[in-house]
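Appendix B. Raw example, untouched.
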Amino acid sequence: MKTIPLVRVSQVLPVVDFLNQIGSPTDRLLEQVSLTPAALDYPEHLLSIYQGSTLMENAANREGLQTLGFLIGRKTQLHTFGTLGKILNNCLTLFDLLTTMEQLVRLDNSGEHVSFRWEHDSIWWQFHYDCLAHGSNLQTILYGLGIYLTAFRVALGPAWRPTEIHLEGPLCRSLLAMDDFAGTTIHGMSSCNAIKIPRAALSLPYNSLSTGDDFNLHPAYAGFQQTAPASTFCDSLQQLVQALLLYGCPNIDLVAAASGLSVRSLQRHLAEAGLTYSKLIDQVRFNRAVVLLQQPDAKLLEVALELGYTDPANFARAFRRWAGVSPREYRLLHG
């Protein structure tokens, strides 16, 4: 396993909002995937794509809505996706939007792969999600389909319908009855998900008020890049554990469940990296503590709580064990 695919919380918020609107027991559904409502308070934080995908699959089964993911995606505007959304909202044309997404999507969702392929007078916008360890990706695929169609209609007009779509897995026949796909040929069991777009549409304006600045110049881009999902297993696991620390120190069963792995598989991956779970927790806590202690306005109690300690004295003892000095002494030495 190369990495644990992670996604920003901002991509899960539209799912939770939609479930609340239709009266689903959202808190219970979140609990089933090892999430709490408080875990969604920080849009730029990361969680496992397995958690988001399983949340939609469980909700679709409970509500009896085979097209739930598409219904959510169809109501979701790209600009709502935190920093990524703000950068994409500054794109001049549809072509600018596609090329920017191609470069930035994996800084928002390491489990998603996007690209476009030229074909005569058309292009194919292709998107793929890493397979889950178990379970289905159907609702995630439909969610992406809805999001991209909504984005393309900003340039092509609200009545635009693609002439052809390819979807991975068995064909979701409920889509065929939807007005969004009147006149659209939908193929199932394809090698990747793809939407056909007229090549002439690429030059259509996406945001007429855009300044057209390079996304590297966006004031939030540096931070967005620095907090992107990691590309290695251990680093991505550390990011997931760090996100879970805000709600108490997570045990190995919780982290394995959030990763979509069995405890045995997680332990095997850690052993291959020369780590134990307790050592991983220590690494995550120490690295995060160092960052927080360099912020002069961060109180030691707040640092302890963010690292999952309910008692600051326990944090102080652990930090002395890691660094040989107390948190206060570390601040004086490195402040």
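End of appendix B.
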